[in-house]
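thought: fold this chain, then report.
action: predict
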Amino acid sequence: MRLLYIAATDPYRDSRAQELLDALLVAATFGAEVSVLFQDDGVWQLLAGQDGAPLGQRSLGAQLEALPLFDVEHLYVDRHDLRTRGLDEHDLLLPVTALDTPDLAGLLASHDQVIRL
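observation:
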């Protein structure tokens, strides 16, 4: 089964980013082919050098760096959302494929299920 998780929330605003990461790691552990699209404020999850300690939280960035250990290697970012926030691919802690808006429909269609948080 091909699953696409859409990370669309700020990494430390609430628990949704952590919950999405936990869910996709469980799916990957049980053999699903997992891809992740970072969109909207979810692009902040990819920012290098983040630290959740001042907020009393674990660093989501450090956890994301472990994704390849779980065979989660298909990572995408919405190029428009990245640029809107003044970021580019060099600011990110992981290698991702940046997609333009027309390419997003194809990404969504290529998966059996799409989960957005």
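thought: worth noting. The chain is about 30% helix and 20% strand.
final: tokens above.
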